[in-house]
Specification:
about 260 residues; alpha/beta; seven-stranded parallel β-sheet; 10 helices
Amino acid sequence: EEVDLAAKGSLPNLLTVGDIRGELHSHTDFSDGLDTMEAMVEAASERGYSYFGISDHAPSVTSRGYKEVKKIIDDQIAQVRKLDKKYPDMKILFGYEVNILADASLSLPDDFLEKLDFVIASIHTSLDQDRVQIMKRLRKALKHPLVDIIGHPSGRLLGERDSLDIDWSSFLEEVLKNNKILEINSQPHRLDLPYDLVKEAKDKGIRLIINSDAHSVDTLYYIEHGVCVARRGWCEKGDVLNTLRLEDFLGELGIN
């Protein structure tokens, strides 16, 4: 469409890196990241972000036990709230990247999910399941009232593995129906949602968020790659949630 739109002077005003006001997907040394929570928050503050989310891989109730996980979550929430006061110019939010398990359940029980500011649900295991089961897992996550974002939706790793076997037309309709947010993951080996599906999601009115999925302070800049993917999907500033001012962004997440 670009030639016809160019002839009419109607090309979109594409998103830029400078439009990004914050993000929600980052990891610390609590899970598989390299740096502490405070180091990640400090680096986000230096980028001039208005909001920043910590979202380590959720601790396993199966391996650690209910009481230990409860203590971990309560301790981390206390740490985040303390940092939030230390950095008054930036709102710090606490969530987890929660696994969508092979049986379509989530890896944290609801009473723990309710404690979080936001929940990113992602598939990391049993990637070779057939389309029926993969779609069952995604649909169940999309219908879960405590899930906000579907992380790196295709599950692909560039040069390593293909996308999950997803019925994309049906999946995007379910995302829209359940008013969930799709991630554009900026990791160079993911770049996921792929740009052609970004365009399709945007055209359907699906909410998008660009996250670095940073695992160190040095990789927060990955957000630039996600912006490039969004631009290839014709995204303008208004198509991406984390271009919003803090109050509007929190409203989109249902945080008072």
